[in-house]
Design goal:
With 205 residues, this protein is mostly helical. Among the domains are: 77-109; 113-193. Helix content is 46%, strand content 3%. The chain is built from five helices and two strands. A two-stranded antiparallel ribbon has the order 1-2. Helix 3 runs antiparallel to helix 4, helix 3 packs parallel to helix 5 and helix 4 (143-159) packs antiparallel against helix 5 (166-193).
């Protein structure tokens, strides 16, 4: 088995059809009462790990075992996509009307473009690396999350190569350069300071 995270695409069209066929609501299962905590105060709740979906394994050309791609739901038709897009646009307009009714001075929002996606990923990476902390407060750093966000920027740059305008490509390369430079500086500081050991767990007794 590979370490690649498993995901499942849910066909909401099928779920909606099944919900319409059900005439009576099913009663909620009785949950077992949780044991009383021995000590007061908040408790750490750890979500139960769900079993991974079964993955089909087949033999490759060289005889090695390989995992098959997860089965995806049927691709929506052109008409289904058109209707869904129209419904989404109508919902977005209703939401904007509600927001503007509460804030009359707010003008119409500009359409979302490629630059907004790049800026959002860049800002997320910088915040994960401690930027934006209030003065006097210790920055909270999520170095692994920052690495994943910068890797997402790299994937975006690779997948859009040759399909960007000169200005978009310049922005993409500048953002990647700045994010990687900040990451390199931060990891150098962490290496110099050393990794601190986690705090000891409180005694349950």
């Amino acid at each position: 088995m590979s370490d690649t995270p498993k995901f499942e695409v849910i066909d909401r069209r099928k779920m909606k059809a099944e919900e319409e066929q059900e005439s009576k609501p099913t009663p909620a299962p009785q949950s077992e009462p949780e044991p009383a905590a021995s000590h007061g105060g908040p408790r750490l709740v750890v979500p139960e790990t769900e079993p991974e979906p079964a993955t089909q394994v087949f033999a490759g050309v060289d005889g090695s075992a390989q995992e098959a791609e997860p089965e995806l739901p049927a691709q929506p038709t052109a008409e289904e996509s058109r209707q869904q897009e129209a419904a989404y646009d109508a919902s977005a307009r209703r939401l904007e009307d509600l927001v503007r009714a509460q804030n009359p001075a707010m003008g119409a929002q500009p359409p979302i473009g490629f630059e907004h996606l790049v800026q959002q990923l860049y800002i997320s990476a910088m915040v994960q690396m401690g930027a934006g902390a209030q003065e006097g407060q210790r920055p909270r750093v999520d170095i692994l999350g920052a690495k994943q966000t910068i890797d997402l920027l790299s994937v975006l740059a690779e997948k859009t190569k040759g399909n960007l305008s000169a200005a978009e490509d310049r922005m993409m390369q500048t953002v990647l350069f700045e994010a990687r430079m900040a990451f390199n500086e931060l990891t150098s500081m962490i290496s110099l300071q050393g990794v601190q050991a986690p705090p000891p767990k409180p005694d349950k007794h």
